[in-house]
Specification:
By secondary structure, this protein is an all-alpha fold. It contains eight helices and no strands. It folds into two domains: 85 residues, Rna Polymerase Sigma Factor, Chain: A, CATH 1.10.1740.10; 77 residues, Orthogonal Bundle (Arc Repressor Mutant, subunit A). Keywords: Sigma factor, Transcription, Transcription regulation.
C-alpha cells in the first residue's frame, strides 16, 4: 500500500476512487473536522453526526473531484459550511414553531384524541377556506411536512423568494381569521 503522507499524492489517489486513499484521508482529517464542528455546534453528538455525514458525502458524492486547494482547507471549509447550514435549518424550524404558536392564542388544546382530531379538522377547514390553493400547499409543505423554502420551491417549480412571500401572506391571513373566530 502506498504511503499517502503527501496531500497531492493522496488527492490524486482519491480522484481515482482508491478506497485506501479515502481511509487515509479519513484518519488524517477527522480530528480537524471534529474540532471545527464542535467549535461551531457546541455539541459533541451533533458534531459527530455532521462529520460522519461530511465524510460519507465526500466519498459517495465524490466531492474530492472539487478539491482544488489543500485538503485540510477543503475539509475545514466544507465542515464550516455544513455547520452553518445545519444551524440555519434549526433556526428556521424554531421560527416556524414560534409562528405556529399563533394557533395557541385563545385555543385550549384538547386532552383526548377525539377532541384533537376535531380541532385538527377545524384548523384544516379554516386553512382551506381562507387560503388560495397555492398558498395552502406552501403552508402545508412548510409547517406540516417541515420542508424548507428551497425544497418547496423545487417541488413547486418556483423561487424560494416566492415561497417566502406566500408564507408571509398566508400567515397574515391566518392570524386575521383566527382573531375573528
Amino acid at each position: 500500500m502506498p504511503s499517502f503522507t503527501d496531500d497531492i499524492l493522496l488527492l490524486r489517489h482519491l480522484k481515482t476512487g482508491d478506497p485506501r486513499a479515502f481511509e487515509t484521508f479519513f484518519q488524517k482529517y477527522r480530528m480537524a473536522a471534529m474540532v471545527t464542528a464542535m467549535a461551531i455546534l457546541n455539541s459533541e453528538a451533533a458534531a459527530k453526526d455532521l462529520v460522519q455525514e461530511f465524510f460519507t458525502d465526500f466519498w459517495q458524492k465524490r466531492l474530492y473531484r472539487y478539491v482544488n486547494r489543500s485538503l485540510h482547507g477543503f475539509v475545514v471549509q466544507a465542515v464550516k459550511n455544513k455547520c452553518i447550514n445545519q444551524l440555519s435549518k434549526e433556526d428556521t424550524r424554531r421560527r416556524r414553531m414560534q409562528a405556529m404558536t399563533l394557533f395557541d392564542e385563545g385555543i385550549t388544546w384538547p386532552d383526548n384524541r377525539l377532541e384533537r382530531q376535531e380541532l385538527r379538522s377545524e384548523v384544516s377547514g379554516l386553512l382551506q377556506r381562507v387560503l388560495s390553493p397555492v398558498t395552502l400547499k406552501v403552508v402545508q409543505l412548510a409547517y406540516m411536512d417541515g420542508k424548507s423554502r428551497k425544497e418547496i420551491a423545487a417541488e413547486m417549480g418556483t423561487s424560494p423568494n416566492t415561497v417566502r412571500n406566500q408564507l408571509v401572506q398566508g400567515l397574515k391571513i391566518l392570524r386575521k381569521n383566527i382573531r375573528r373566530s
